[in-house]
Amino acid sequence: MNIKRTAILLALLAMTAVSSADAATREEKRVGDAADVLEQLLRIPEKTIPPALLSRAYAVAVIPNVVKAAFGLGARRGKGIIVVRQGDNTWSNPAFITLTGGSVGWQAGMQSTDIILVFKTRKGVDGIENGRLTLGADASVAAGPLGRQAGVATDIEFQAEVYSYSRSRGLFAGIALEGAGVTMDRKANAAFYSSSSMTPERIFVSSPNIAPDIANTFVQILTAQTSRLATQPGMNTGVGPDTDEDESEVKTFGMPDPTQDQ
Length: 262
Known about the structure:
Elements: H1 2-43, H2 51-54, E1 59-71, E2 73-84, E3 95-103, E4 108-119, H3 122-129, E5 133-134, E6 141-143, H4 150-153, E7 162-168, E8 171-174, E9 181-184, H5 186-193, H6 200-205, H7 213-226
Parallel strand pairs: 6-7
Antiparallel strand pairs: 1-2, 1-4, 2-3, 3-9, 4-7, 5-9, 7-8
Helix pairs in contact: 1-5, 1-7
């Protein structure tokens, strides 16, 4: 009897270990898929997120394989990651997020796209950390412009707080996401960082050493996109000379957002 109980116990432990490994693998795959989406930005310079916008980004979220299903009413859902810019212009460890949304009107069919959100200010990220951010309600959102010259030719002021992009069949395009909700995926954070107490705040300020290697791969790809970009408008971005107003454009995680009290 004791041998039988021991065998059952060992089997349960093995199943638990496999389940934990599968969970970790799921999160690592999500980060890997997000890294693949970022790599596409390098391949189509004429049809990509404008460098002038990335140079002002406070945070960047990548949600691979967002599924949109519509049979009368439409629904959109996907799981991805978000990183924030640090005070030294590096990018933080990724935190996991979930995007959900709906649409009205007669629709039919199903499709999968990759979505990228570029946050200009800290306000939107704070909303996600505090529970839920509704795009268009809690933070203004706009379909993002495309191309290296888009920042100079159109909407150089980038008035929206969040710019949204989709990638389908290898091509990027701006996408309207008003009403979509973004929430923090705390279970995924706990699984990826092997700690149930790993809050978004801790993730963003922690050393890269706490994250699996795939997280560093994602950050390195994003850094390759942004390391040569000036973090202030007017510094090699073709938008004119520096001003005191320009210096407040980028809000880093380690710095207070002066617009918060307004």
